[in-house]
């Protein structure tokens, strides 16, 4: 299988980026996008040229590090799969494949296909404080959780933070990501104690780095963990409930 690759090259955040064109032969349809980039780097090394920088870790669809854009689509042509699981069988022999970083104003390019996604980390850090009584761990059955609610909480907890949802959104919104965290933690008894404080802090952090949500739905199409679109609603829901509860407490 032969493909023509157009790869984005950018040596640093403030440098001017450009496209490089490469021909790759001997590829297999079962190879992943990342394995194709491995093959490209092997070819570049043999030619004495600089390798293409890209991120990867587990290559099992768990870590979320492999986010990049393939022919304008975050991760690649197949919905709900990370780049490390996108296979070359979706392309035809002789096709041109354009590989670039995840594109968003909140993701500055570090080098080539690597972007800085620390804006996502800042959202989690903002809601990461927990104030609970220290001491001996409670028995497992002292705080009962409804099975259906637990399963739903785990569905939201599946988010791996790849950031593709932001790149797919025309507004650069992170509501699917933020909502998955808020919805997950609001359903469990211990983290629920910080529910109002967490909602206010995380939404404020998100609004400082990401755009507003207009319910386009592209985020759910690219999410590797199939986070339901209902997570988007959790952002405004949790923010509204935290405000209402503060009013009740203060008697406003």
General description of the model:
The protein is 37% helix and 11% strand. The protein has 252 residues and is an alpha+beta fold. The chain has two domains: 3-111, Roll (Ubiquitin-like (UB roll)); 118-250, Orthogonal Bundle (Fumarate Reductase Iron-sulfur Protein, Chain B, domain 2). The strands form two sheets. A five-stranded mixed sheet has the order 2-1-5-3-4. It has a two-stranded antiparallel sheet with strand order 6-7. A hairpin with an 8-residue loop joins strand 1 and strand 2 (18-24). Helix 5 (175-186) packs antiparallel against helix 6. It is an enzyme of class 1 (oxidoreductase). It comes from Ancrocorticia populi.
What is this entry, summarized?
Its EC number is 1.3.5.1. The chain has helices at residues 33-46, 118-126, 147-157, 164-168, 175-186, 195-209, 218-222, 230-250, and strands spanning 3-9, 18-24, 69-70, 73-74, 96-100, 109-111, 114-115. It has 252 residues and is of the alpha+beta class.
Instruction: Identify the CATH homologous superfamily of the largest domain.
Output: Alpha-helical ferredoxin
What structural class should be given to the helix and strand makeup? alpha+beta
- The gross shape turns out to be elongated
Reported CATH architecture of the largest domain: Orthogonal Bundle
How much of the sequence lies in strands comes to 5-15%
What share of the residues lie within helices? 25-40%
Q: Could you tell me the number of beta strands?
A: 7
Briefly note the CATH topology name of the largest domain: Fumarate Reductase Iron-sulfur Protein, Chain B, domain 2
**N-C termini distance:** 68 Å
Determine the mean pLDDT: 92
Task: Give a quick account of the main beta sheet: strands, pairing sense, barrel closure.
Answer: 5 strands, mixed
Element order: H for helix, E for strand: EEHEEEEEHHHHHHH
Overall domain count: 2
Radius of gyration: 21 Å
| Sequence stretches where pLDDT stays below 50 over 5 or more residues | none
| Multimerization state | single chain
Give the C-level CATH assignment of the largest domain: Mainly Alpha
Q: What spatial order of strands do you see in the largest sheet?
A: 2-1-5-3-4
EC number: 1.3.5.1
InterPro entries: 2Fe-2S_ferredoxin-like_sf, 2Fe2S_fd_BS, 4Fe4S_Fe-S-bd, 4Fe4S_Fe_S_CS, Beta-grasp_dom_sf, Helical_ferredxn, SDH/FRD_Iron-Sulfur, Succ_DH/fum_Rdtase_Fe-S
Enzyme class: oxidoreductase
Protein name: succinate dehydrogenase
